[in-house]
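G.,

No rush on this.
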Amino acid sequence: MTRIGTMLALVAALAAAEPWNLAVDANLTLNQNAYSDNWEGGATGQLAYALTSNSLAEKQLNEKMNSRNTLKLAFGQTSTQDTAGTWGSLVKSTDEINFESVLRLTLGFIVDPFVSAQLQSQFWDKSDATLSRYFNPVDLNEALGVARQLVKHDKTELVSRLGFGLKQRFDRQVMDTLTQIRADKSSNYGGVTFATDFTTPLAQEKISYTSKLVLFQALFFSDAAADPAGNWKALDVGWDNTVAASITKYVMVNLTAQLLYDKEIDGKLRLKETLALGLTYKLI
């Protein structure tokens, strides 16, 4: 009991040392147009919506320890009207759950030791047309290494991290194309990871730019025998960029561009680009 009391007292002391830097932005974008069935030109209507939320909780726990936690949630669907005026079913257009926690030891050295953990998933998995799975698949990423804060000026920050990383992927009820039997699958990777986070305000802080670049070079793979081509050995790249502009207090414009490269999924670079005008609300 004494040890538990000591640990609780330590946690309480760390929590009270400095206030948390909290930020929560919620955005809703809508796009709708429709045509009567006698409209000339073959035009079709469309209904689309997207809900996104970006949260930050950061705190200098003490002189030698910094905690930074980010959470990104997004979900959107689209429905298209055919030339006869009939609306199709809603199809998912965006879906993301991304939580990352980084603990950095600010010891005053040239670089700071760090540990990090990340969870990535989606709300609704429809990759299999015959089965709906929720919160699937799940990717867990852990890293241990060194970090350096290259820039820190007002709201502009640039931090890079380099270390050893582990990746686990859990996929439920995967259909085997040969046996036609469903089973849960998991895989494990280990290798070198590099990440850079950059954020800065623009145009008198009416516009903000956020960028995150993640590179992962796998050194081992638990299921390498299932990949005789060795695609798992290729460098994985993830680069997210967001430009957010506040038109008024509740109206915003977002431009996002995501570049992904994972040779196990596709041998070409994948790009996702979104331009949205919608409503925004800062909860904190």
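When you get to it, here's the other one too:
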Amino acid sequence: MKNSDELKSIVRNKYSEIALQDKSQNASSCCGSGCCSSEVENIMTDDYSSMEGYVPEADLGLGCGLPTQFAKIKKGDTVIDLGSGAGNDCFIARRETGANGKVLGVDFTTAMIEKARDNANKLGFDNVEFRLGDIEKLPAETNFADVVVSNCVLNLVPGKEVAIREIFRVLKPGGHFSISDIVLEGSLPENILEASEMYAGCVSGAIQKNKYLDYISEAGFSNISIQKEKKIFIPDDILVAYMNETEIEEFRKSNSGIVSITVYAEKPCCDPVNKCC
């Protein structure tokens, strides 16, 4: 089993590679936002193109939901996007929060931060900022944000409990999050869990759905609800790299698998530290 630093290195290297590709290469290959099913990152993607504020150049097709669609962002809000990539969710959040709001994107891949900053500069968005940082130790002060969003990123974080506590810390009392992520129902075969490619592709880093929701509750969040849920089908041409035909058949029959969920939760307005807002 790889340790935390090794897992982070796998993710950083993979997503640095994706960030450095141009869009046409990325879309036509099995290393980024292309449609070929042999690339794990692409089997979960939802379509952003009809959402207001959508910037095609910032969409690398690496998400598993549409968290900004459910995030209840209001004009003037301060929003943090965890794992902001090339800036896709940040720019949609900026459309919702308006020119008087602020959007902060956090990513721990230098190439992604540079790509996102370049996109923001081209668009002239002076209220969208991108910071290099680790989600387990967010580069934002306590009680900073009204809303936190994230799209298929926490499953890549080894210390999920720590990351969720960090979300609680940076949210203002009364603030909330909407996060799309990958969770498990049942168990995945051991050879999938051990595959680096499946970790970077958001699969083997996922945890059980109930455990994920427990972490959110234990961090102090309230009014937890699932806004959207969908089962993710892993095509045979991906599984065949890790399993034989018999193992694939047994896996299909088990009803185990991965699920994309969009989770909403609120930081209570009253707590022992902040009293009542």
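DSSP finds eleven helices and nine strands in the chain. The first helix runs from residue 4 to 20.

Enjoy the weekend,
O.
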